[in-house]
Amino acid sequence: MEQTITPALPEKIIPKGPGSSPTCEKHGVEKQAVNFGWYDSTPSWRWFCLKCGEDQRERDRREETKKENLRRQERINKNLENAMIAPRFQSKTFENFQAETDKQAYAMQQSRELLDHFGESPGMIFTGKPGTGKNHLASAITKEVVTTKGKTALITTAMKIVRAIKASWSGGNESEAIRRFIEPDLLVIDELGVQFGSDTERLYLTEIINDRYEWLKPTLILTNLTMPELAKVLGERVIDRFREGGQVLVFDWKSYRGKNFKTCGGLNA
């Protein structure tokens, strides 16, 4: 009959009753005999304080959390850099946006709504004259998308998109050039004006917007055009998508620019 041999704790450290085990100097509790491994079929028993073990696990957990927070912050910093927020607008936030009228307050509210329901909307169109805060809110949205949502973003212009695609014709890959503008979770297209080029260039732009729509990636368009003018550039189909699932905000108030100009001798200083 085969005999089963159960490894035993060496006699010299077998507990003989309460108080027989070593006491942890830190916690004041008896240590437990723990097998830390096998060596030549012999268990390696050691006295071990369970509370010390719990403390070590907690330290390890805090250290891993610290490392993960550092890795997350590094990703955020890299994504902010890749978002290409112009230095002039890097300090722009929702908190320092001047909402002095009901329309301005509504524009800020709807911008926050885009964040609250990110990915559910095709995006937004900001239309209006220069200096009315379109870039301010677009930059605030972009920073929040990156820092609080953990997403990627890119701010560019319509002409930069076209130039990047055309540059790919000289030995590059056109599909890769287009994909660069489809991949970010948020794409902001600035300076979309009536001067925007040929039918082919318009097709590139609408292809990017449509692909992003299908992949549930919001697009934010900034333009000085009226909606009828913008429809001629992008087509009614694209505009309808923004109207149905997104937002079209008209920035029709006076420009913020010049409000803080000081005058000296009748001249702007």
Write the layout of secondary structure elements.
Elements: E1 32-39, E2 42-48, H1 50-83, H2 102-116, E3 123-128, H3 134-147, E4 153-157, H4 158-167, H5 174-182, E5 186-190, H6 199-214, E6 219-223, H7 227-234, H8 236-245, E7 247-251, E8 263-264, E9 267-268
Parallel strand pairs: 3-6, 3-7, 4-5, 5-6
Antiparallel strand pairs: 1-2, 8-9
The CATH fourth-level homologous superfamily of the largest domain: P-loop containing nucleotide triphosphate hydrolases
- Share of β-strand residues: 15-25%
- The end-to-end distance, rounded to whole angstroms, is 105 Å
Enumerate how many helices there are, as a single number. 8
CATH topology of the largest domain: Rossmann fold
What is the total number of structural domains? 2
Strand count, sense and closure of the main sheet? Answer: 5 strands, parallel
Mean pLDDT: 87
Query: What are the segments in which pLDDT stays under 50 over at least 5 consecutive residues?
Result: 1-14, 261-269
Name the structural class: alpha/beta
Helix content: 40-55%
Radius of gyration: 31 Å
Q: What does the overall shape look like?
A: elongated
Widest sheet: strand order?
4-5-6-3-7
Identify the CATH architecture of the largest domain.
3-Layer(aba) Sandwich
CATH class of the largest domain: Alpha Beta
